[in-house]
Specification:
Radius of gyration: 18 Å
Bound molecules: zinc ion
Number of strands: 9
Structural class: alpha+beta
Order of helices and strands: EHEEEEHEEEEHH
Helix content: 25-40%
Distance between the termini: 37 Å
Strand order of the largest sheet: 1-2-3-4-5
Number of helices: 4
Strand content: 15-25%
Shape: globular
Largest sheet: 5 strands, mixed
Length: 172
């Protein structure tokens, strides 16, 4: 059977499994499942469509990234289902049992809980804001409070803020 062009499978995992499944499972088995899905539907690209499902049934995209040049260090990124907003970007090392540390799992659950109440953390200063009402501006999947956007706080403090960074971006 042939699938329509552009068809893909998402792999949806209950967020609670982050507490119990060994991290190595996420790295190896998940990749095998992705490849099997790719073959199954004839998907051409290598993007993963990993999702976590919250208790309320909402889905989020996630990805693990290995830190370059260091063994056993990773970060997890979580986005809203459309990938438009980065709601978590957290570095971690697997714990002594090879699991995702409980503090990280709690952080994921906390951020998802906030998101579902219409709240998020500014992607720079991490202050709590109402989403999307308090978002002053966006840069790719990042979103910023008014203060970081205008350069009163954050990484580009006194340098025009994220507003200037975004204005200089050509998106090419
Ligand atoms: Zn901020």
């Amino acid at each position: 059977m042939e699938s329509p062009t552009g068809t893909y499978c998402s792999i949806v995992i209950p967020v609670s499994s982050f507490r119990s499944v060994p991290f190595s499972w996420f790295l190896s088995e998940l990749e095998d499942i992705r490849k099997a899905c790719k073959t199954l539907v004839g998907y051409r690209y290598d993007n993963s469509h990993y999702r976590i499902r919250s208790i309320s049934g909402q889905e989020y995209s996630f990805m693990f990234v290995k830190a370059p040049f260091v063994t056993n260090k990773f970060s997890i990124n979580v986005w809203d289902a459309r990938g438009g907003a980065n709601i978590l970007d957290e570095p971690f090392c697997p714990d002594s049992q090879g699991k995702i540390p409980i503090e990280i799992v709690l952080q994921i659950e906390k951020m998802i809980g906030m998101w579902e109440k219409g709240e998020a953390l500014c992607c720079d200063c991490e202050s709590k804001i109402k989403y999307p009402q308090d978002v002053a501006g966006r840069y790719f999947a990042g979103f910023y409070c008014a203060s970081c956007w205008l350069g009163n706080t954050g990484r580009y403090k006194g340098k025009g803020g994220w507003k200037l960074v975004e204005a200089r971006e050509t998106y090419n």
